[in-house]
Amino acid sequence: MLTMYSTSWCGYCHRLKSQLDREGIAYEVVDIELQPEAAEFVMSVNGGNQTVPTVRIAPGGGGDEIVMTNPSIVQVKEALAA
């Protein structure tokens, strides 16, 4: 499961969403401005900053969770393939 933490005004988030759509990669978007607990998670993995897009990939086969900040579509695809 891929979750993208985002805001409505983030240009990098809009770009990554478009790329994910083009690649046919399913994802859930969580707006950190509407969900304080999501903002807390983003800050916990970004040195206290609310940096978006932050992508969280939950393990599918018992592996480790992957969290990336402002990744490229190539990085996301590589993480999903791992």
Would you mind describing this structure in some detail?
With 82 residues, this protein is α+β, with helices and mostly antiparallel strands. It has one domain: Glutaredoxin (3-Layer(aba) Sandwich), CATH 3.40.30.10. It is built from 3 helices and 4 strands. The chain has helices at 11-23, 36-45, 73-81, and strands at residues 2-6, 28-31, 54-57, 66-69. It has a 4-stranded mixed sheet, with helices on both faces. The protein is globular. The model has no long low-confidence stretch (mean pLDDT 94).
At the fourth CATH level, what is the homologous superfamily? Glutaredoxin
Structural class: alpha+beta
Amount of helix = 25-40%
Number of domains: 1
Give the mean pLDDT.
94
Question: What global shape is seen?
Answer: globular
- How does CATH name the architecture? 3-Layer(aba) Sandwich
**Approximately how much beta-strand content do the residues carry?**
15-25%
Question: The biggest beta sheet, please?
Answer: 4 strands, mixed
CATH fold title: Glutaredoxin
Question: What order do the strands of the largest sheet run in, or round the barrel if closed?
Answer: 2-1-3-4
Give unreliable regions as ranges.
none
Query: Can you count the beta strands?
Result: 4
N→C terminal distance: 13 Å
User: Can you write the helix and strand succession as a string?
Assistant: EHEHEEH
